[in-house]
Write a structure and sequence with these properties.
mainly alpha
Length: 157
């Protein structure tokens, strides 16, 4: 824009010192600095807005291309599905229901277990219950203390 080197800046500052005067020069320089800063910020905001609009246009174009691609895929899926349905109906048209055997047994239906959990729990092996810590008998507090009390070994001499 402006080709300013050190000699031109020195000439401009000397002229400003003579015209404005040494008393008002600092306040004028401060005002000019704030105005230049505001101008730079305004130019940066305008540039950012232009970049945003350009990116928005690019995104709109990309969105349109993706939508057309999705529509094409959807159309091809629908045509393939209709072709499959037509082929399937032609293939199964000659079959009657008395000759048809299901390929797999029907899935099992859910039955509420009710009170069978006691049976299942009783069918568990004793060694598994012992390993898992399942209580098989009700113990009183004193019996539990006696059971888990460390064994005293008497010394035989």
């Amino acid at each position: 824009m402006f080709d300013l080197d050190f000699s031109k800046i020195a000439v401009v500052s000397a002229v400003a010192l003579v015209v404005i005067g040494p008393e008002r020069l600092p306040s004028v320089a401060r005002t000019m600095g704030t105005m230049i800063g505001k101008a730079k910020r305004y130019v940066a905001d305008v540039k950012a807005e232009v970049n945003r609009t350009m990116e928005l246009d690019e995104l709109k174009k990309m969105k349109e291309t993706m939508e057309t691609a999705a529509r094409d895929v959807e159309h091809s899926v629908h045509t393939a599905a209709s072709d499959f349905e037509k082929d399937w109906s032609e293939t199964t048209a000659g079959l009657s229901s008395d000759h048809y055997e299901p390929l797999a047994p029907p899935p099992p239906t859910y039955e509420n277990p009710g009170k069978k959990w006691r049976l299942k729990r009783g069918a568990m092996p004793h060694w598994y219950k012992a390993r898992q810590g399942v209580r098989t008998k009700a113990l009183s507090g004193a019996a539990r203390v006696a059971r888990f009390r460390p064994v005293k070994r008497s010394e035989h001499v």
